[in-house]
Amino acid sequence: MPMQRHIERHQLPYYLKVYNRVTDKPMGYIGNVSVDGMLLVSQLPMLVGGRFDMRIKIPGQSAQCFIDFTATCQWSREDVTPGCYDSGFSLVAPPTEYIEMVEALRVYFSFHPLSASA
């Protein structure tokens, strides 16, 4: 029986593009993230067990910011969307910038109900 994950993930389809850090070619989009890993949505399946040098390019007001990291593909399978593949990655020593991005996205996408005024 496969192990169930209990890590909270945040859905981010088609917003943050991931690039191969060596070739600067796009690999796909972040589907969701956690501090230890991410789901990559791509047009090609990823090599399970492969270690990839990746880069996320975050647009900024004055300049583009890069988050460079290394991740290992744990699994890859065809998505329900034709021509798309989902691949799960675990990060190898996630950099501080990646962890800060995950936290910023968690805060941004979290629902915070307003307190009732008396």
From TrEMBL:
Residues 4-95 form the PilZ domain. One of its GO terms (molecular function) is cyclic-di-GMP binding. Pfam families: PilZ. InterPro entries: PilZ_domain. Gene3D superfamilies: predicted glycosyltransferase like domains. This is PilZ domain-containing protein.
